[in-house]
UniProtKB/TrEMBL annotation:
EC number: 1.6.5.2
Similarity annotation: Belongs to the WrbA family. Belongs to the SsuE family. Isf subfamily.
Entry's Gene Ontology cellular component terms: membrane
Keyword Oxidoreductase belongs to the record: yes
This protein's UniProt keywords: Oxidoreductase
Keyword Flavoprotein: no
MF term (GO), any: NAD(P)H dehydrogenase (quinone) activity
Protein name per UniProt: NAD(P)H:quinone oxidoreductase
Gene source species: Sulfuracidifex metallicus DSM 6482 = JCM 9184
Source organism superkingdom: Archaea
Amino acid sequence: MEQKIKILVLFYGYGSIVSLAKEIAKGAEEEGAEVKLRKVKEYFPQEIVEKFHIPVTSNQDIQEISLDDLRWADGLALGSPTRFGNMAGSLKIFLDSTIELWTKGELYGKPVTFFTEASTIHGGHESTILTMSTYAYHFGMIIVPIGYAIPEISSSTTGGGPYGATHLGSKPEVDEKEAKIARFQGKRLVQVSRKLKG
């Protein structure tokens, strides 16, 4: 009997980035994977959370990430909203804390894919994914883009592209095209993980 592929969907953020993470997880499950959905810790001080009305309760049902979750996974989907064209600081802090995995080569050869959201079309969708991908290069991971494999990627006027699933945050909800792209990305990650593990 074939062993189930284990996929970790890890993100920082609230609202639409959580929706994208859940769609990627759903796609991975539809492809037969066992999936863990995890978030990174919020590092904003309480006064910033209150001042800018950050909806920290919107992902309370999701467990925080541990290094063992990364060890467990056969493949990883990594997501963050864009912060000035880069990943959010909370995700960067967590990734910087994974040096123990790096020194032991524990993520070497594992496939990884990326997703993001930004408020404007040119607000950093691609650059945020590219900045997250530098982590994978240093860990020797295998980057899994989605290319133009489904028509929604080239026909979407909102989010999604060859780099990965995205959401155009000027509208509150992830639309059906964005959701379909995210589910496809989850399936693609499982397919590649299965081939590499097999």
